[in-house]
Design brief:
Order of helices and strands: HHHHHHHHHHHHHHHH
Oligomer: single chain
CATH topology of one domain: ABC transporter involved in vitamin B12 uptake, BtuC
CATH class of one domain: Mainly Alpha
CATH architecture of one domain: Orthogonal Bundle
């Protein structure tokens, strides 16, 4: 009597396989550290302490995590429509431009309570508008979204250089940055927020945008899995032919998914421009848009997974800096290599272990079911 094929549970794909990929990345990293005469376990201890061991470190870790949540969600929304949005870096850049332009124009006249929602709307609008152009080219002209979004990263960078050097630079300044925003254009730091309640926390770049990142996770979950638009996005991503047969217009879905994706990436500008630097400047995105691709892949394009993956990369950024500071043999380039290995195994090689793990699971389940069948 034949038995029914074993169904692979979802926790294997979304939980076990990413953990194995991360373990492999750390194993290879440990071999590299051992080769340069650095004890891997001591390095892990330094990284963990540097990321979570004291309140300032935790603040920096969560500050990095916030940016990765925004860019990871951006990649995930597009990916649900089977669109590989590589343009998060440029969309975050232009989103920050929208924030800066709005605050520079309004901070002398409006209070913070009005500027904040306007800044959020402007970051979303500018990021969505920048993503809408590659979306239109994909939907109506057949240009591949990967190529156009990569191109638009470079266009965004060139545009920002021109604006900061020739238009928005503070008069009399040699540095390509705008004037500092007025107090009404400053997003409060979390140590200031805690201070309002009498709790003393060491200052760090962590600001109220971390709350907005949490809200965005909830909104994306509702949008993708509990709205008609989200259903259409997932349907087009799963089977475009079936979506057309069901009356869904893939072109409109491409435009919607990319605009939402660009808006989410644009929120990096809230954290960086309004929350940390309090001015417009060059290169504030610092590669967050590209790391967001690995975050989304590791998090299996689900908000919960993205939060966990973002926290991991936040730990690597902050803890890696601590490791480079505490261990003379570990250079900054070595830390970037460790981060790159995690991205490699969780991104490019995300499904390398999928086949072996699933075959092992089927074998183990089959072995446990066989005695039960024989007893029956």
């Amino acid at each position: 009597m034949s038995t029914a094929p074993v169904k692979i549970p979802r926790w294997v794909d979304v939980g076990l396989i990413p953990v194995i990929n991360i373990a492999l990345a750390f194993l290879v990293s440990g071999v590299i550290l051992f080769a340069i005469d650095v004890h891997p376990l001591e390095a892990v201890e330094i990284i963990l302490y540097g990321a979570f061991g004291y309140d300032e470190a935790l603040g920096y870790t969560l500050y990095y995590t916030t940016n990765f949540v925004f860019t990871g969600l951006a990649v995930a929304v597009a990916f649900h429509a089977s669109l590989f949005n590589i343009g998060g870096e440029g969309q975050a850049y232009i989103g920050g431009l929208g924030v800066g332009l709005g605050i520079l124009a309004l901070d002398p006249y409006l209070p913070f309570i009005v500027i904040l929602p306007l800044a959020i709307l402007l970051s979303a609008a500018f990021g969505a508008a920048w993503a809408a152009i590659p979306a239109y080219l994909q939907a109506y002209r057949g240009s591949h979204i990967v190529i156009t979004t990569i191109m638009f990263n470079f266009i965004a960078a060139a545009l920002m250089v021109y604006l900061m050097v020739n238009v928005l630079i503070q008069p009399g300044s040699m540095s390509p940055e705008s004037r500092e925003f007025a107090e009404a254009g400053h997003l409060p730091f979390m140590h200031e927020v805690f201070g309002w309640f009498g709790v003393k926390v060491t200052p760090s770049p962590l600001n109220l945008s971390v709350v907005w990142a949490a809200i965005c996770c909830l909104l994306v979950w509702v949008f993708i899995w509990h709205t008609r638009w989200g259903y259409e996005i997932r349907t087009v991503g799963a089977n475009e032919t079936a979506a057309v047969y069901a009356g869904i217009d893939p072109k409109k879905v491409i435009m919607l998914a990319m605009c939402v994706s660009g808006a989410l990436a644009g929120f990096v500008g809230i954290n960086e421009v309004m929350g940390v630097h309090h001015r417009l400047l060059l290169n504030f995105t610092a590669g967050y848009g590209f790391t967001g691709i690995a975050v989304a892949l590791m998090g299996r394009n689900h908000p919960v997974g993205i939060v966990l993956a973002s926290l991991l990369f936040g730990m690597l950024y902050q803890g890696g800096a601590e490791l480079a500071f505490e261990e003379p043999k570990v250079t900054r380039e070595m830390v970037v290599t460790i981060q790159g290995l995690v991205i490699l195994f969780s991104g490019a090689l995300a499904y390398m272990m999928k086949g072996p793990v699933e075959r092992t699971y089927v074998r183990i389940v089959g072995m446990t079911q066989r005695p039960a069948a024989q007893e029956g």
